[in-house]
Structure formats: structure tokens, C-alpha cells
What does this fold into?
Amino acid sequence: MYHYVDDKNFLKRAKNFCFNLLNDLEGELREKGLNTQFFLIGSGARNMVTQNENGPIDFDYNLNIISCDNWNDGKKLKESVRLSFNAMLKSRGLPDCDDSTSSLTTKPIFFKDNSSIIFSIDLAIVTENVDEFWERLIHDKR
It folds into this structure.
């Protein structure tokens, strides 16, 4: 059964970890000519994080592509983000992310001094088009 996570110390620590990781990712992408901005969405953004029993907690983020050199090559764009994300994960001793259809997902993460709570990061690649509608980059694996 789902319940709200009420460990404010853990939530603050996990969100800070995610912020620092994604902030470093933005810097790495900037060096590759991608101007980006990340933001927390979903239950994490509303401070209503839920957990199924003792299962992992998901923090959902959007990585907004503000500008880049080549908008027409989504595959190359996602690959560039994926490789940079993996480099940031590796720098923290974490394994590579999974490349799902609509997001990049980390393997389970936990703090060594509190391994009872596991979390992961789902990172979707999005942009706002000229009509002010949000578009999400989808990986068609067929």
C-alpha cells in the first residue's frame, strides 16, 4: 500500500543529491553546446512523495532543451544527454542509467548511512515548442 514519505531529512538529502547531479549535468551539456534547464515534476515537486511499502522512491525530472546545435537529430541529442548523464553518475560511483522509451532512469540509489530507503531518478527530455506546448523526446526502439 502506498504511503506518503514523511522523513523530511531523507527527502531534503535526496533532493539535494539530485539537484547537484543534474546541475553538474547541465554544465557538462553546456560544454557540448546544449543550453538546458532541469526541473522536478510530479509528486516530488508538490512535496507529496509516495512510496509503495518499502519500495523505491522515484524522483521525476524534466530536462528542458532550451537551445542546441541540431534540433533535427533527436537520436543524437538523446545519446549526448545519456552519455553525459552516465558520466555524472560514474563520477559519483553509480552505474549507467537505463534508456527507456520516454526517460533515462538511474539504477537504485541509496545513502550508505541509510540503505533502507532506495530512490531513483527518471529524467525525461523535453522542450517547449513555438505554440507553447511541451514536447517530450521519445525513443522508438522498434
Remarks:
- The chain is about 30% helix and 35% strand.
- The helical segments are 8-31, 42-45, 74-90.
